Amino acid sequence: MPRRLFLLSLCLAAAARVAAADLSATIAAVKPSVVGVGTFQRTRSPGTVFTGTGWVVGDGLSVITNAHVVPEKLDAEQKEALGVVVAGAGTAFSFRPATLAGLDREHDLAHLRLSGEPLPALRLGDSDTLREGRDLAFTGFPLGMVLGLHHVTHRAMLSAITPVIIPSYSARQLDARAVAQLQRAPFEILQLDGTAYPGNSGSPVYDPADGTVYGVINMVFVKGLKEAAISHPSGITYAIPARHVRALLQRASTQ
């Protein structure tokens, strides 16, 4: 091997090791800010039901998740409560009640508010600065509480920035929700090459180097719009850009 190529290969290997070390440190810093979202009912077995992933932002009492993760109705008679599930180790976790502070159904985002002691918060980045090819990562609970509430992290590259829905070749491929979204003017979403699962809905998509959040994983709402005409799921992962999270938080601050 020519000396120049040999030196280049050494540099690339060293860079890869540094990147891996950075991500390891970032994951450790991000995990305390990533929570489960669900409901608790004392008379139910199990008492806690997991519905998706959320993450802490702002003053440590705000949690962002997908709107479809938040139950539309709670069983008031049985005192069912909305809240977040703070992971411990394996099957150890605690439930903290929360209130719904804001809902953005168009972008499938929800803002929950906790009471009590704040949790570590993640920094919200400017998603408008993202470019295709950017390395990202996301952390959440792809299996929910089935095997214990374990944080799972995936690497992902930003494969494309695309409209949330594209006009179909046939009207038969459009459902009522897709038609409504077309009438509202489609917004752009982040298309990732990492593999996410339904429990990842609401997971933060962040910079592997410093944990800055640039998007929110969405595994149900967006797929129903983007892939409505596909008979078999593509396996592509989508995320809502962080600009819509910022707008949701700003609405709450002005109320």
Commentary on this structure:
The structure is a single chain. The protein has 255 residues and is an alpha+beta fold. The protein has a domain at 127-254: Trypsin-like serine proteases (Thrombin, subunit H), CATH 2.40.10.10. Helices cover 22% and strands 33% of the residues. It is built from four helices and twelve strands, in the order H-E-E-E-E-E-E-E-E-H-E-E-E-H-E-H. The protein has helices at residues 3-30, 176-183, 221-226, 242-254; strands at 34-40, 48-57, 62-66, 81-87, 93-104, 109-114, 135-140, 152-163, 188-192, 204-206, 213-218, 237-241. The strands form two sheets. A six-stranded antiparallel barrel has the order 1-2-3-6-5-4. A hairpin with a 4-residue loop joins strand 2 (48-57) and strand 3 (62-66). Residues 5-19 and 167-171 have low confidence and may be disordered.
Task: Give me some keywords for this one.
alpha+beta, Thrombin, subunit H, six-stranded antiparallel barrel, 22% helix, Peptidase_S1_PA, signal, Trypsin-like peptidase domain-containing protein, Peptidase_S1_PA_chymotrypsin
Largest sheet: 6 strands, antiparallel, barrel
Examine the secondary-structure arrangement and name the CATH architecture of one domain: Beta Barrel
Structural class: alpha+beta
In terms of quaternary structure, the protein is: single chain
Distance between the termini: 65 Å
The overall strand count is: 12
Question: What share of residues is helical?
Answer: 10-25%
Helix count, DSSP H or I runs of 4 or more residues: 4
Q: CATH-wise, what's the superfamily of one domain?
A: Trypsin-like serine proteases
Shape: globular
CATH C-level class of one domain is Mainly Beta
Mean pLDDT: 82
Keywords: Signal
Protein name: Trypsin-like peptidase domain-containing protein
InterPro entries: Peptidase_S1_PA, Peptidase_S1_PA_chymotrypsin
Pfam families: Trypsin_2 (PF13365)
